[in-house]
Please model this.
Amino acid sequence: MLSKKLEKALNDQMEMESYASFLYLSMASWFDSAGMEGCSQFMFRQSEEEKEHMLRLYHYILEMDGKAIIPGIKQPPSKFKSAVEIFKSVYVHEQKVTKSINNLVDLSNKENDHATFNFLQWYIAEQMEEEALMRSILDRINLIGGGPQSLYYIDKEIEMINQAEAAKEAAEKA
Ligand code: OFO
Model:
């Protein structure tokens, strides 16, 4: 059984994951309009991942006899300055999510809720991976630099990363 405080905090996290899903979907749409298909597919897959993160919380709350409240999601931005700015802001957003997960872990400790503490370990590992992935994308974008065809090369690079991530996910699910 979840404490009321923890139930509320897990529901708030559902909202955060849902917002990330919509934000990344909006970025996927922007990339598609910019003709950057590789980046668009990457952000679409990230969006789906965030939805899965939200659903994982949903199922856990129900399993713990709590009430999962389906959140209203505020509209994410639809205009972005550039591809580089998008990846920078994804990194910042992921850091924000990590902080929120860390706060949840602290709360589960305070409430002496070992089951929730254990459940949250998956998110800790996931956030470490997500942050590392974003850092490596930003490093590669830096290496590509700002030459005339840089957007083309960024798109190709992200397309390859996306394929590798999709293969990794498929292997984990198999
Ligand atoms: Fe679910 O926040 Fe990113 O990974």
Observations:
- The mean pLDDT is 96.
- The two ends are 32 Å apart (CA to CA).
- Helices lie at 4-33, 37-63, 83-110, 114-144, 150-173.
